[in-house]
């Protein structure tokens, strides 16, 4: 088998992948159960696009398993989840939103209030971020 050096771009992709896996493992070590879905990667208008297409599946799972949890951490800032999140809160579920601050829908941030956590802040808090950024919750 011939050996070859990784291209810089391949090396960066691998580094990001390993960092993501390490992050997931760290979260699981705190007792969280993660449900991951692969991201679809495709080309559109000459650029690479990524899409998870998991909104319906996640909403379905949250509703189907409602009796199985008291607290839920939703890793999405998508405003489409608002009706489900409101319903969960009506059913006395603690709903925490974990998302990228700038990409989180305004209505989700308003709904979550103090129960909103920025991904970057979380990485910093669990010792996986490189620095604390100003303006994060």
From TrEMBL:
This is NYN domain-containing protein. GO terms for molecular function: RNA nuclease activity. Residues 22-109 form the NYN domain.
